[in-house]
Amino acid sequence: MSKKIDIPFFDGDDFHTAQNVKKMSDGKSLDDLDRYEWLLTLNKLAGEQVKKNGCIIACSALKEKYRDILKSGIENNIKWILLNGSFEQVIERLGNRKDHFMPTSLLRSQFETFEDPIDALKIDIALSRKEIIKTINNELVNRSEFGLLGLGVMGKSLSRNLANSGFKISIFNRHLKGVEEDIAINFKNEYKELDSALAFDDFEDFVNSIQKPRKIMLMVNAGKTVDVVIERLIPYLSKDDVIVDGGNSHYKDTERRIKYLKNEGIYFLGVGISGGEEGALRGPSIMPGGNKNSYRLIQPFLEKIAAKDKNKQPCCSYIGGDGSGHFVKMIHNGIEYAEMQLLAEVYTLFRSLGKVPDEIANILETWKAASNSYLLEITIEILRKKEKNGWIIDSILDKAGNKGTGNWATIAAAELGTPSSMIASALFARHLSSFKEEREKAEGVYGENERSPKLSKEELLKAYHLSRIINHHQGFKLLLQASNAYNWDLNLAEIARIWINGCIIRSSLMEDLVIILKQADTILLNKEIVKRVKYLRPSLNNVVSQALLSQMEIPTLSEAVNYLNGYTNGRSSANLIQAQRDYFGAHTYQKINDATGKFYHTNWNKLSHD
Amino acid sequence: MSKKIDIPFFDGDDFHTAQNVKKMSDGKSLDDLDRYEWLLTLNKLAGEQVKKNGCIIACSALKEKYRDILKSGIENNIKWILLNGSFEQVIERLGNRKDHFMPTSLLRSQFETFEDPIDALKIDIALSRKEIIKTINNELVNRSEFGLLGLGVMGKSLSRNLANSGFKISIFNRHLKGVEEDIAINFKNEYKELDSALAFDDFEDFVNSIQKPRKIMLMVNAGKTVDVVIERLIPYLSKDDVIVDGGNSHYKDTERRIKYLKNEGIYFLGVGISGGEEGALRGPSIMPGGNKNSYRLIQPFLEKIAAKDKNKQPCCSYIGGDGSGHFVKMIHNGIEYAEMQLLAEVYTLFRSLGKVPDEIANILETWKAASNSYLLEITIEILRKKEKNGWIIDSILDKAGNKGTGNWATIAAAELGTPSSMIASALFARHLSSFKEEREKAEGVYGENERSPKLSKEELLKAYHLSRIINHHQGFKLLLQASNAYNWDLNLAEIARIWINGCIIRSSLMEDLVIILKQADTILLNKEIVKRVKYLRPSLNNVVSQALLSQMEIPTLSEAVNYLNGYTNGRSSANLIQAQRDYFGAHTYQKINDATGKFYHTNWNKLSHD
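Above: the input entities. Below: the C-alpha cells describing the complete assembly.
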C-alpha cells in the first residue's frame, strides 16, 4: 500500500519503549499508563508526517480513548482502517510470526480490551493482500470523505466551506428536467476550490462515491422533501452510515426520522446551522443533535467549517440527544424574531421623533459600544442604503414573512408552559403586518396615529438594551424548560458560546451570557444582570409608557416590561383566575398558607346552599 | 302494532285531496306542490296526536324535505320506520292490492324520487307481520333514544338535562374495581328524572339498549381515553350509528377520528359544549361539527337540551364539517382566557389603588350596565365571598392552571398566521404565574413593584370595555382565518348568537356582536364599533401607560393597545424586518409602489461589489 500510493509506512510496535517491550516479553499486558507515552510518540510522528504527504501507521489502537490521543490535533487528517479478524484467525497468524516480543498469550486480553470504532473502514483479513490494498484504495483514495445533498443557497455555501477546509466532498443536486439540470457539475466547474469534488445528479452514484461509513448532509427544504430524499437514499446506504439534516426541520420530525432510520441501521442527526448564506460560506454556528457516538463521525467536518469564538474554539458543540439540535436552532430563531422586532420598534420610534434613516443609522452606530450585535450592524447598513429615489427602506413593503421556526418556537413555548411572550409578540407583529390592506382600511377609518412621544435617544438605548436582556432570559428559559422536559441536559453556557460567532444573534450581550450562564441558568437572577436591569428599568418603563400614549405599535418592548413586572411580582393576580376556574368548572385551587398543596373547592354561588 | 301498544293508526293515503287522488288515478305522479297540502295535513294530524298518546301514521315520505314538513314542530317526538323492500317485492304487492287509486305504473317514479332516511329504523318487508311488530317493539319501545357514556361532572349534568327534556336515555360508566363501581346505577337511583333511564357498566349491554341508528355521546377525558372508548364500542355498533364526542378534544384528533370511523361505516361528530357543570344541567351552549347529514340525527336532542337565546332559539347550531365544532369551542375558550385575564388585571389595578375586595365588587357591580358578562358576575360574587379569616380570594395561591384549550388556541393562531396576541398573552400570564417560587425570589432581589398608578375607576371601565372589544375582534378573526383555511364556511353571527347564553363568555357585548357580525366579519371596522373605540381609546392608552409606569403586570391590556395601534397603522415597521431578512438570508422583499408584487433582492453589504 505504501509503495502504491507513495507515502511512508511505520509499524507502531517499533516505537515502544524498552520497558514496554520487556513487559510484553514477560507475558504481561500493558496498562493505560504504559501505553500513554507510546501513543503520544505515534501521535507526534503522525503530526509530522501530515505536514508532508501523510503516512501509514499500523498499530493496535484498541480503545476509543487511545484513538483520541492518536488523532489529537490532526482529527481532520486521519483515516482509520480496521483489519478485522476473529480471535481464531489472529491467534493462528500470531503463532506463525517470528522474532516478535509479544507472546500469543496476550491476545485474549487485547480482544477483551478492544472497542469497535464506528468511524473506521473495516477490512476482512481473510482477503488477499492484493484485495485489501485494492479495497483501501477504492474506499479511501478514490472516494470522497463527505457528501452534501441539495445545492440551494445554503448547500452551495457549505460545500465551498467544506472544500476550502480541505475536505474531499461529493455534491449532489437532483435532476429536474427543464428546471434543475446539471446543477452539481456546473457548480463544481464554477469554483476552483471544488476541483477535487465529485458532482452528481444520480442518487446511487452519489452514495457510492463516499467512503464508508458514509457521512451525507442534507441541505434540502424542511418538511416532506427530507422524507422523500431519505427514501431515495436508503436503498444505497450501508449499516452505520450517517445522514445529517442541516436544514430547519421541526425537531419532532427529526425525532421521528432518528427512530425510523435506527431500524434501518442508519444514524440520523439533526443539525441546526445559523449564519445565512455568508455564515455558511465563511463559518456558521452549528448545533448538532442526535446520537452522540455517531456525532463523532461528523464532528471533525463540522468543527472545521464552523465559525470560531475569540479563543479560536469552533462555534459548534454537541447539543444533546433526539431532536435537540433542531430545537435549539428553532429557539435561536425565536430569539432572532424578537431581536429583529425590537430593532423595528426602535426604528419606528425614531421615525416618530422625526429622524430620517441616515440619522437613525448614525445614532445606532453610537449604540454599538453598549449593545452591539450582528443585527444592529446590518440594520445600520440597511438604513444607510440608498437608491436613486432615496432610502431603500422607504420603498419596502411592510408585510413581514412569517412562516417556520418563529411559529414553531411560539408553539413549543405554549406546549412547554413557558411564558416566551417576546417571541410570541414578535411573531404576532409579523402576522399583523401581513394584513396590510386591512390595516390601511383601518387607518382610513380611525385616522393616523402619528403623535410624537417625548423620548430621548439615551432612554431608547436603555430600553432597547434591557428588552434584549429580557428576550435572552426568556429564550434560555425556554431551552431550560425543554431540557428538563425532554431530559436533554442542555449546557446553556456552551450554547451561548457557540452563538457568539457565525450566527444571526451573535452579540456582545451573548458574550456576557457565556460567563453569566456558567454561574446559573436564570439570567434575570444573576447579580450583575440585576444591577443592570435596575439601572435600565425606569427608561424602559418610560419609553413604553410614552410610546403607548402616542399610539405607537411596540408589542415586544411592551412585553419586555410586562414580563419583567410579572417576573418580579411575588404575588400575581392568578388567584382570581383560579377562583373563576373553581367557580364555573369546579377546577379547585390551592391556598397560600397551606404548604401541603391540598386542593380546595368553594361553592361560590350565593344561591347555593353549601 | 296499533292494537299492541294502544295508540291510533292512520293511513296517510286517506288524507289526500280529491284532486290528488284523481291525478294518481289518471296515472300521473304527484309533484311537490300537490304533496305540500297533504303533508301539512298529516303534520297537523301528528301534532294533535302527540298531545295525546301519539299515533302511528303510514304514508309515503319519499324526500327529506317531505319528512321535514311532516316532523315540523314535533322533531323531538317523531320516530321514523322505513318498511324496506325492493322494487320487485313492492310491485308484486301493489299488483295484489285492490280498490286503490294508485296505479302500479307510478311505482317506478316513487322509487326514483326516494331519498333514503338516515334516521329511520329500517325493517325488511320480507319479514312476517308478527316479526315486524316484534322488531318495532324491541327497537322503539324497549330501547332508549340516546346513549351517554362517561358520568363525570359534565356527563352527569348532561344526562339529567336529557332526562328532564323527556328523552329516554341509556347511561354508562366504566367499571373500575375499587375505584368506579356501579356509578351509572347509583346515579340513576339518585335522581327522580332518571327513572326511565337505563344504566350500564357493560359496553355491549349499553350499546344494545339504544335504538338504531344509535346516538352515543362520549363525555370522557379528551385524549387517549376517547380512542380507547371508541375501540371498545366498535364491535357492537352498526352501520350509520353516530358517536358524538362532547369533550374538549383537539380538533385535529376529531378529524382523525371522523376519517377512521367513516371507514367503519360509523358517523363521528365533534361537539363543543360550554357552560360548566351548571350550564350542562340547565342548558349549555353547544357547537356541533362534522358530517351535516349525521348531525340531523342528534339535532333534536342537542337543541332541546341547549340554552335558549332571547328569542327562545336554542344556543346550538351546526358549525361546519370536520373538527370545526371542537375548533370553535377551543377559540371560545381562548377568548375566555383573555376575558378572565382582563378581569384579573382590572382587579390587580384596583388593589394597587388600595381597594379591598368588597369595594372592588361594588365598583364592578356598577359596570354591569355598560359591560355585563357572566365572568363579570361571578367575579363580583367571588370578591364578596368571605371565610372566617377574611376574603377567600386573599388566601388562594396565585398559580393558574394552564393546560388544554388555551394552549391549543394560541398554537392554532400561530399555525394560521393570525395575530391572536391577547389569547397568547393571557396564556403566558398563566404560565408565568406558575413560576411562583422564582417570582418570589425575583421580588426579593428586585424589591416590590407596588406603586400606585394615577387612575380613575371610570377610565378603568373604559379601558376594560375596549380591551374586551379587541379581544372579541381577535377571537372572531381567528375563526374567520380558520374558516377560510379549512373551507368551513363558518357563520360568525350565528356563532355569536349561540354564545349569548349557556356558555362562559356570554355577555351583553356578545349580544351586540350578533348584529354587528351579520353586517360584516370584521368587528373593528364596524361603524358603531369604530365610534365606541374612538371614545374609549384615550382611556385605555392612559390606563396602560400609567400602570406600566407603576410596574404593574398587565400583559393583556397592553396587548389590546398594541394590537389596536398596529391594526390602525397602515404603514408598519415590518419593512425593516423584510430588509433584515433579505440582508442575511436573501429572502427578498416586495415594494410599496409595485403592484405587480415582484420580489426584489438587494446586495446590502457595503463590502460587496454588486
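Note for the figure: Chain A touches chain B through 124 residues (CB under 8 Å).
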